[in-house]
Amino acid sequence: MLFLLIACVPSGPVPDGSDRWALAHDACAEASATCDAFLADDFGLDDTVPPNTVEAFRTLVVWDLGDESSGRDPRGDYDTEPFLDLLDEWSGDTTAARLYNYMSAAVDHVYVANGDSLADYRDGEMRLSILLSGGMWVTLTPVLVHEATHATWPGHDECDGRMCDKTWSGAYGAQASTAWLGGTVMHDAWLLEAAADAARHIED
To answer: Fewer Cβ atoms within 10 A, N terminus or C terminus of the chain?
Structure first.
């Protein structure tokens, strides 16, 4: 099931050359109180954020999403290029590192509260519903990417009465690309299913 996600118009983050991923990698090689504190500081995770959502943020540090040369789908089902191009300006030797640095700049505060949708993003503030924040962390991580990339790609379109993106240059494209890259590199069936689910919300 793909949850309904909405966003408001923000301003996009600007690369400053810093490499927060390198610091996160030192702090979060293993799940620990030190890692939790680092992530809480980096993303503004407040006391409403449950442990599995913290683990979903830690996944951004430890995941293998390949590199630029391995990030293209040879079959053409997943157009990862807009997502990889978005990350190109950010510091890091790998896709995962560049993604972490982008998200660290895009997200200032994360909290859990119910609202009109299961998640939304507004000017650095990411809200997750209680239901969504309690989901399986491995498939929650691409949803966090979806919300954060609304900093660059705000809003959605409507396709046949449902929320969608017209092209892969959108938050659903980022979500599908993240799940596909992780699922392909790590041979994870859950992530590949999540990628296909997100891709159904892309008209192109």
So the answer is: N
